[in-house]
Design goal:
With 678 residues, this protein is of the alpha+beta class. The protein contains 31 helices and nine strands.
């Protein structure tokens, strides 16, 4: 650890002011204590008078009625009864919570925030900023930051959070969690900047459930404690101080600093000097950092957080290269890796945060999007194992179900979606889960079972789910060859206006019209609709399979093959094997034996009891055409008892294999419809 004491730039004056503030706070505390003793004595005297029937107690500003009122207000806020609490707040005496009106304004702001009246809440939080207690001031700023997040003003929210962070080391902030909450807000803003997520949609398997990380007002009073501990003197209060702490061998570091108000560039130079860094900045950057900032009061805050809090508001980006702190104009985009690390650090720092489960689900989502599937799975399971009842647990189960479905673990995914239904019955999450249960069956090449689940989803009240389920049922009809029923469903169903839904409905309509009257103009319209529907990929592997069959129906085998080759790179299960088989057959017909053989072999290994038997027969026929009689017979013998293979076709190939070996008697038995004994 390096220690750097800075005595220049008004440090002594700041230290005196700081010491005076401490003395003032101590005097105020002593006065409050004396007043409390006086109130106690007055109460005892009044009680004695009541006992003798000679007087009545007059309730003052700190009497029992006001204490009871403050307790009622806080209890209502904690229970989420914001309207009722707001009614009491607005009729309460200004000093209900203490010697000034700021704490009451803070409660009013929490009520308005809970009611979603963000602008009014922001105005009330501004009133609460007048509190002379730095911890209370910080809580009010954090409330304003939450309002800015809710109204989609990320820059304002970040600036407010930064103001809190640079004073989070003040003695009146200790034990109040404002430091942890400031970091939590910054992490949440980074997640939003990354594009936290799209609306959940049945046609989008990448649309995860993203929980709300924002601290709710009913949790604020307990998490951000309003009972600020007394201020204690700070050693060397008369001098500015910067301490640099290197925390590990990877270059991670923390800063403890106490600096008076000064230009931001001077703050950065002081921090850089303590860290042993030179500062490099052009004149325009120095000019942008000329505005005063502070006071700076941080205690073991990550170096990067301090630098960002100082530079962000000036539109300056920092970077450390070697032994130099480089400052340039611009803004720093959020990076998924850095955001994930910040959230992990936050979970270690504040594991008991009220929004901890939401934060863990968010981290798992970021890991999933980055391809860290094992970390994502572990994160979701940790939330599920917490045995909580919050909506965040439902989100974890839903997202884990999507992950397992993508991984081809359909039974496990189905169990996750059933868990979602159990946890959130009658909600949009239950409706959506029924849809995805249908997808687990459809991906497993079981369209009839899929149809049942989709019909259950259709009974729900979530528009995007009923629309998606209707489209999926139509796909089931088309996959099973029931074009007439599909036509009726298209005519009788109203789909939502989302682009993906409308385009898929248009494709189905064009397909049924073409099959009724396959004209050239309708063929062109069908092709355009197929492209517009993204080749039905929104319905998963089965959708892509249906699109490929349409290409084949239109005489476009190459397009079918290209689509299937792309789809099987990520698809799992029997539908993927069917696509692989169709492309293998196409190459086989073209005489391209090498790509055909590799696909047949993959299918035979992956599904020996199902489609693999037919792949073995194709390999046997290929061997016979190439004059390899022994190989042809051997492969036929391995599947001779498989019900999925045509006996007549198998015996024909086997007979050809015996002919190539000059075993004409055995070949004759095959051609007569009998399996010969060797």
């Amino acid at each position: 650890m390096g220690l750097f004491l800075l005595c220049a730039g008004g440090g002594a004056g700041a230290g005196i002011a700081y010491t005076n503030k401490i003395k003032h706070a101590e005097a105020a505390a002593a006065a409050a204590e004396a007043e409390e003793h006086a109130d106690d004595a007055h109460a005892k005297d009044a009680h004695a008078k009541d006992a003798h029937g000679k007087g009545a107690h007059t309730k003052g500003a700190h009497g029992p009625a006001e204490v009871s009122l403050s307790t009622r207000i806080d209890t209502l806020i904690r229970s989420g009864a914001y309207s009722e609490a707001l009614g009491l707040v607005r009729t309460a005496p200004p000093k209900t919570f203490g010697p000034d009106a700021a704490p009451l304004a803070y409660r009013e702001a929490l009520c308005l925030e809970g009611l979603g009246k963000w602008k009014d809440a922001d105005a009330a939080f501004k009133k609460a900023e007048a509190d002379t207690n730095v911890g209370a001031w910080a809580r009010a700023l954090l409330g304003r930051a939450r309002c800015a997040v809710a109204t989609d003003e990320p820059q304002a929210a970040r600036a407010l959070a930064d103001r809190v962070l640079i004073r989070s080391g003040h003695p009146e902030c200790r034990g109040t969690k404002v430091y942890e909450e400031g970091l939590h807000l910054r992490a949440q803003l980074a997640v939003r900047e990354l594009g936290g997520g799209r609306d959940v949609d049945p046609l989008d398997a990448d649309a995860l459930a993203w929980p709300v990380m924002l601290l709710s007002p009913d949790k604020s009073l307990d998490w951000l404690a309003t009972d600020t501990p007394p201020v204690s003197p700070i050693p060397d209060a008369g001098r500015d101080l910067v301490e640099f702490h290197r925390t590990d061998s990877h270059g991670n570091a923390e800063i403890t600093a106490r600096l008076s108000v000064r230009p931001a560039i001077q703050v950065l130079r002081a921090i850089a000097k303590a860290a042993g860094l030179a500062v490099r900045a052009e004149n325009d950057v120095i000019a942008a950092l000329a505005a005063p900032i502070g006071p700076i009061e941080v205690e073991r805050l990550p170096l990067g957080e301090v630098l960002s809090a100082v530079t962000d508001r000036a539109g300056v980006v920092w970077d450390i290269r070697g032994e130099t702190l480089i400052l340039t104009r611009g803004s720093r985009p959020s990076e998924a890796g850095a955001t994930a690390e910040a959230i992990r650090r936050l979970l270690v720092l504040a594991p008991e945060h009220p929004m901890g489960e939401a934060t863990r689900v968010t981290l798992a989502n970021i890991d999933l999007r980055a391809g860290r599937f094992r970390a994502a799975t572990a994160g979701y399971k940790q939330v599920l194992e917490s045995a909580g009842t919050s909506q965040d647990v439902t989100h974890a189960a839903f997202n884990l179900g999507l992950l397992e479905l993508k991984d081809g673990v359909r039974n496990a995914a189905r169990a996750r979606f059933l868990e979602v239904i159990d946890r959130a019955p009658g909600t949009r999450w239950a409706d959506t889960a029924w849809y995805w249960i249908g997808r687990t069956y459809l991906d497993g090449d079981a369209p009839e079972l899929a149809r049942r689940a989709y019909m259950t989803a259709l009974e729900g009240k979530t528009p995007e789910v009923t629309s998606g389920a209707a489209l999926a049922v139509i796909a089931c009809d088309l996959l099973t060859g029931d074009t007439e029923t599909a036509t009726d469903r298209i005519r009788d169903t109203r789909f939502i206006n989302r682009e993906a839904h409308a385009n898929l409905a248009a494709f189905f309509e064009r397909l049924t019209q073409y099959r009724v009257a396959p004209t050239e103009s309708r063929r062109e319209l069908l092709l355009a609709a197929l492209k517009g529907a993204n080749e039905v990929r929104g319905l998963g592997p089965a959708g892509a399979y249906l699109a490929g069959r349409v290409y084949l129906e239109l005489g476009m085998a190459q397009q079918m093959s290209d689509l299937y080759d792309a789809a099987v790179e990520t698809a799992r299960g029997p539908i993927a094997l069917r696509m692989l088989f169709d492309t293998a057959e196409r190459f086989d017909r073209l005489g391209a034996h090498k790509p055909a053989r590799s696909r047949y072999l993959a299918i035979a290994a992956a599904d020996p009891e199902g489609l693999g038997a037919l792949a073995e027969l194709r390999l046997a026929a290929m061997a016979a055409r190439e004059g390899q009689g022994v190989e042809a017979v051997r492969r036929c013998r391995t599947i001779v008892d498989r019900s999925t293979v045509s006996r007549a076709e198998l015996l024909t190939v086997m007979g050809r294999g015996y002919e190539l070996q000059k075993k004409h008697g055995l070949a004759a038995e095959c051609f007569a419809g009998r399996v010969p004994a060797e």
